[in-house]
From TrEMBL, chains A, B:
PANTHER family: GLUTAMINE AMIDOTRANSFERASE (PTHR42824), GLUTAMINE AMIDOTRANSFERASE YAFJ-RELATED (PTHR42824:SF1). Residues 1-241 form the Glutamine amidotransferase type-2 domain. Gene3D superfamilies: Glutamine Phosphoribosylpyrophosphate, subunit 1, domain 1. The keyword Endoplasmic reticulum does not apply. PROSITE patterns: GATASE_TYPE_2. It comes from Trichormus variabilis SAG 1403-4b. The lineage of its organism: Bacteria, Bacillati, Cyanobacteriota, Cyanophyceae, Nostocales. CDD domains: YafJ (cd01908). InterPro entries: EgtC-like, GATase_2_dom, Ntn_hydrolases_N. One of its GO terms (molecular function) is transferase activity. Keywords: Glutamine amidotransferase, Transferase. This is Class II glutamine amidotransferase.
Length: 247, 247
């Protein structure tokens, strides 16, 4: 079910210069049906009028990817802000990366080419080029896609730290290289308290029995819920708020 | 020189349900260097919190494309809002269309495929596929690109009404099928008064001698300046605020 992310974003955006040092820009992508909108800003998220709008304006979405940047490679410019987006097979694909891939050089012969100069966008383009080359006719069944994605992910992850979130608006592909965790919120709902701000929301008052949401983050956003760590090297797929695994 | 578009957007956005009937969503793309951000909303621009933000928050940009939609083909959904964006040759390309292309059917064999179901996005994908097929190695010199673009534009325009704006963040390609006009504002600057709102701005107070800006619109935004009509069938290229023509 589409939901807004105002609560999570309140705590998350504080990490863009207030409770954490990730202040070299930020971005957030919302899927609404097949459509997708992305808000980007090269300013710290705590100072950004756009972030203020996102905090206050409840955009209902099925799949959201947010990122706050600490620049390791590439200037602090708009084109280097995550999440990145491309269209493949008539769907938008959105990608955000936490980590660093030193000396990552890709031959830019594929269709998808980076616009900015981050290792992250290079990796994203390589992943999409690999998917397209393996499935030129269109989007394959999920498990086939997963196997190709796992192989190219392992190859890139051998170069450096490669925690990522990738979505086509229907699935979330989440790879843990060093740190990534998740929780599933579903009935019976309870209250949750943010780590980065002193704020509590009682989800039992705001939800229905049909609601279910998975939240995936590099480090937990709340301090009174049990977050499940994803294992290093693990590539999970979330669909309809639940993780799937393939061998 | 990068400039904000608050004045023009004030009048333009009134056409999304107040002074005109284009109330089936709106969008605006800002290029900042090679980066690009797009704000989209399936709501009328006069009711949209996002439009309110764009009206108030002076984003400085070299190339801006704004669109308000009156749906002719495709549902009123986010994926059908203009402007559309794709990456080609490592640059973002942004496109907005005014018009209607009845019975426009493209074989979807190219790399770029529409996400939504508008004739406009189909036409955009066909244009980019044609450019890529003609220049697979990368972006060609401007005049070569222009000739290919003109040919595919004429082909599409033979089907229906095809007024458009296309930008790679360095050039504006503007095609007039039925209506499109422009003005160049440069020193000596004067006051301009909007048609859609009773608002005047004296640009001589806000500009320097080095500033120059081209504004292109389907119908004039101001009533005390001389707007130059683009001729039906004409494809102009604007660079650094001036129109170029090729034979």
């Amino acid at each position: 079910m589409p939901t807004d992310i105002c609560f999570s974003f309140e705590g998350f955006s504080a990490r863009g210069g207030k409770t954490d040092e990730h202040s070299d820009g930020w971005g957030i992508a919302f899927f609404e049906g097949k459509g997708c909108r992305i808000f980007l800003d090269a300013k710290p998220s705590i100072d950004s009028p756009l972030a203020e709008l996102v905090r206050r304006y409840p955009i209902h979405s099925t799949h959201v990817i947010a990122h706050i940047r600490k620049a390791t490679q590439g200037e602090v410019t708009l084109e280097n802000c995550h999440p990145f987006r491309r269209e493949l097979w008539g769907r938008y694909w959105v990608f955000a990366h936490n980590g660093n891939l030193p000396d990552f050089q890709v031959e830019s012969k594929g269709i998808f080419q980076p616009v900015g100069d981050t290792d992250s966008e290079q990796a994203f383009c390589l992943m999409l080029n690999t998917l397209r080359e393996n499935f030129p006719q269109g989007q394959p069944p999920l498990e086939e896609l997963y196997q190709v994605l796992r192989k190219i992910t392992a190859k890139i992850a051998s170069i450096g730290v490669f925690n990522y979130l990738l979505s086509d608006g229907e699935h979330f592909f989440t790879h843990c290289s060093t740190k990534l965790c998740y929780i599933i919120r579903q009935a019976p709902f309870a209250a949750a308290h943010l780590i980065d701000e002193d704020m509590t929301v009682d989800f039992s008052e705001l939800t229905t029995k049909r609601d279910r949401v998975a939240i995936i983050a590099t480090t937990p956003l709340t301090d009174n819920e049990v977050w499940i760590p994803i294992q290093p090297g693990e590539l999970l797929v979330f669909q309809d708020g639940l993780p799937l695994t393939f061998k």
